[in-house]
Structures are given as structure tokens and as C-alpha cells.
Amino acid sequence: MRAAHAGFPGPVVAAIDRPDLESALGLARRLAGAVGGLKLGLELFVAEGPAAVRALASTGLPIFLDLKLHDIPNTVAGAVRAAAGLGVALLTVHASGGRAMLEAAVEAARAFPTRPRLLAVTVLTSLDADDLAATGVAGGPLEQAVRLARLAREAGLDGMVCSPLEIAAIRAAVGPEPLLVVPGIRPAGATSGDQKRVMSPAAALAAGADLLVVGRPITAAPDPAAAARAITDELAGLARASR
């Protein structure tokens, strides 16, 4: 399984989108052993800061710090250095910040013996062609995501975040090495919510994803750990069947 190459014991990463540390840590502890990693996003990080990273890391699971950094190169480099000091496994920057910003992030991360893998966010899964057009972007999400993935690869980043619908095209554009981390994962029967470009876990892995970020289908379930295990068990069964 390619996910093991990224230091994750399994492909499912749970998005711990909680507004306070107590509830986030309680959820993370319930999910330990049921998922391959934890994603900590802006809401919790703004509310609780680096203490939230350290607390979630106490579960023993790898941490994906999804801050989507996007600023001038010097500022992003400083933020990358601060995040790298927290020992996170993955860290996001926006590819649309441009090549100089991306290269500054890579250079900052390289200063650490054990550094986070840097992921470039391509096109948010909440956006469609009309949304991009409203911001002046020519072409639809697929074209823009591939364009930004190539830029990130040329700048030396370790991988990309993309919607499930762009996995195959990005994999074809950047090759087998970059790590593809994919949100917008919805098991059968789950609602799309505010995400417009979604796919099932099995289909996303089959298309070439490495790690699957799953939020509400796990975290809003009556039993989050059981919901997570249902996804991982299904994927494990498919993997065995394909051998």
C-alpha cells in the first residue's frame, strides 16, 4: 500500500473538525486504531494553536496539519518552519501562491532533519467551473488542478491535494512519485455537504489516491470509530480481492 510510504499505517485520514481541544481530543482518542491518521484544520488550530497539534499527536497517529498556507514567500517560509517544529507528518500550502512561494516553503522544510511532507492544494473541492470563472480562472477545475499540480511538482513539493475527479489526470501529469491526498470522499449513502466534486473511498484509491481525507461521514456518525472501521474494512477487503 502506497500510504505506508508516507508514514501512515492506513489510507483513511479522519478530519478532526472540532472547535475546541477537549472535544477534538476525545474524538481523536476514539478513532485511534480505526484510522491511519488525523487531519487538523484551520478551525481547531486558530482556536487552540500548537497545543492542539501536540495533543492530537499524543494518540500516536500521524498528524496532517491542513493550514493551506498562502502568503508572500517569506511569511510562508516562516510558517513552514514553525509547523515543522511541531513534528507534523503533512502540511499544506496553496499552489496558487505561485512558484516563488512554493520554493520558499520547500527550502524552509529542508532545514529540518525530520520534516513534514509538503502538499500543494490545487482546487478546493467546494469549487466548480462557475466558481473558478467568477475569480477569473480560465478553464474548469480539472484543467486548473493539473496546471497547479505541475507547478507544485516543478517547485519540489512532495505531493498534492486534489478532488477525486482530478486524481487520474494529475497522476498522469506528475507521475507515480508525488503523494496524492484526496478529500471529498463520501461512502455510499453519505451526503455531499458543501463539497461539489466527490467520490467513494474505493473508487478514489483505484484512481490513484494515496491518502483519503474523510470528515463528516466519520466524525458526525453516531459511532465514529465504527464508521471509520467500516471504510477501512471495505478497502482492505477490496485489496485482498485484487491480489
Give a description of the structure.
The chain has 243 residues and is α/β, with parallel strands linked by helices. The protein has a single domain (2-241), classed as Aldolase class I (TIM Barrel). Helix content is 44%, strand content 15%. The chain has eleven helices and eight strands. An eight-stranded parallel barrel has the order 1-2-3-4-5-6-7-8, surrounded by seven helices. The two termini are 12 Å apart. The relative contact order is 0.15. The model has no long low-confidence stretch (mean pLDDT 91).
Supply database-style keywords.
TIM Barrel; 243 residues; alpha/beta
Topology, pairings included?
Elements: E1 12-15, H1 21-31, E2 37-40, H2 42-48, H3 50-57, E3 63-69, H4 73-84, E4 90-94, H5 99-109, E5 117-121, H6 129-134, H7 141-155, E6 159-161, H8 167-174, E7 179-182, H9 201-207, E8 211-214, H10 216-219, H11 224-241
Parallel strand pairs: 1-2, 1-8, 2-3, 3-4, 4-5, 5-6, 6-7, 7-8
Helix pairs in contact: 1-3, 4-5, 5-7, 7-8
- Give the name of the CATH architecture: Alpha-Beta Barrel
Helix and strand pattern: EHEHHEHEHEHHEHEHEHH
Strand order of the largest sheet: 1-2-3-4-5-6-7-8
Query: What's the helix count?
Result: 11
Terminal Cα span: 12 Å
Give a short summary of the structure.
This protein has about 240 residues and is an alpha/beta fold.
